[in-house]
Amino acid sequence: MATTSDIRNGLCIRYNNDIYKIVEFLHVKPGKGPAFVRTKLKSVTNGKVVDNTFPAGRKIDDVRVETHKFQFLYNDGEFYHFMNEQDYSQIRLLEAALDSPDLMKEGEIVTIIINSEDDMPLSVEMPLSVILEVTHTEPGVKGNTATNATKPATVETGASVNVPLFINEGDKIKVETTKGTYQERIKE
Questions:
Q1: FRET pair for 21, CA 20 to 30 Å: which of 139, 140, 145, 161?
Q2: Alpha-carbon torsion 102, 106, 111, 117, what sign?
Q3: Confidence (pLDDT) at 169
Q4: Are residues 163 and 174 in the same domain?
C-alpha cells in the first residue's frame, strides 16, 4: 500500500476495480481546507482517461510492475505485435494500451510495463521523441512567416503533425511523442 505522497507519473494503481496509470498529478495545498492531489488516470485496459482527486494521506493500492524493452514488429488492424529483445518471445497488444500508436514505426524500441503478479502487459511507453520522415506536405507560402506559421504534414507512419513552413517532403523531423508536436528538423 502506498499513500498520495508516493504518486508520480507512470505509477500504476488499482482504482474502481481496474488498473490505471497516472498520467499527470498535482499536489495542492489551499490556504483554507485540507491538502489534496489532483490526478489524471489512464485505464490500461481500455485507454479511458479519468480525472480524480485524492485527499492528502489517503492510501492507494499500487501495482508492482516490471519494465522490458520490446521491438515493435507490425500491426494487423486492432492488434500491435512486439518482440522481446532478450528472449525473442512475441506478444500482441490492443491499440488502447498504446499512448501514441500513430507515431510508432516498425523496428521502434519501446518499454512495455508488465504486471509482476500475473505477467500481463499493462501499457507501452514510447521514447520521448521519434525521428520520422515527412511523406506529404504542401509547399510553404513565402512571406507568411511573421506569425510563426505552421502547416500540416503527413509523416511515414500516417500521423499528421504541424510543422514550420520550411519543412519539405523527404525531410526527417523529430516529433515529441507525448504531445505529437514537431521539435526540430534532423540534418543528415
A1: 161
A2: positive
A3: 86
A4: yes
